[in-house]
Amino acid sequence: MDAFIPLALGAGVVLVVGILICLLLGRVRRFSRQVFGADSLAEGLKWQEEMLAETPKSVSGMTRIYEPLIQEDFPEFNWQEFRRKAEQLLLLAFDAVSAGDGARIRGGFAQFRQQVENQIADNARAGIREVYEQVRIHNTGIARYEKKDGTCVITLQSAVGHIHYKERAGKVIWGGRKLPVQTKYNIELMYVQDAARAGAGDAVGVNCPNCGAPITKLGVKFCEYCGTEVIPVNIQVWSISGYYQVDYQSI
Description:
The chain is an alpha+beta fold. The chain folds into 2 domains: about 5-50, no CATH class; about 55-250, Nuclear Transport Factor 2, Chain: A, CATH 3.10.450. Helices cover about 40% and strands about 25% of the residues. Strands 1, 2, 3, 4 and 5 form a 5-stranded antiparallel beta sheet that branches. Helix 1 packs parallel to helix 2 (about 40-55).
């Protein structure tokens, strides 16, 4: 009889634990059904992961506001044409970085090409191969229009989906090869109206592509801080000067 009591207590504990586990699993299952529409939490999380990988980011909705203002200042400005150019350059940038060949950027976009070449050079110095694959531009809109000290800058924003990763010696060290990520990129168009005003300070809106120091004078050939070659700023012509990522949802 004495030996039976510990066995009964042990069986009771096992039974209670089993009941608690069943209750917990039931709650998890109900939660998964409510949130993901799947019995398994792991299955639901995988479904969410795949859904996020295919859902484009929303871009700035300021095109309707800024386009008329730009058109008033620059009647010859063709928004659709510049949107196509910006999207084409962004695709070329991804292609050039993946191939390690900045010469793929053609058409007189010197500042843009220099940014891409610097990104390629940085990767080479670190022994990294950066890859963009399955790139898709979903939408592009105008995010900002700024006029300051003799310059006008239009910032376009593109919703982009792509597979993006970095590898060293064949091993992925950042990102992933399987699922795409959805993100956004800003692309800047610059127009220098007044060279005298634009050159009065750091208002040209251009920075050294190597150290980031402001370029304070139009037409300079080298950065006064680190000596890196700088592409001169064009005056009275729209130039696609650069791009940068503004939102990244890693999957």
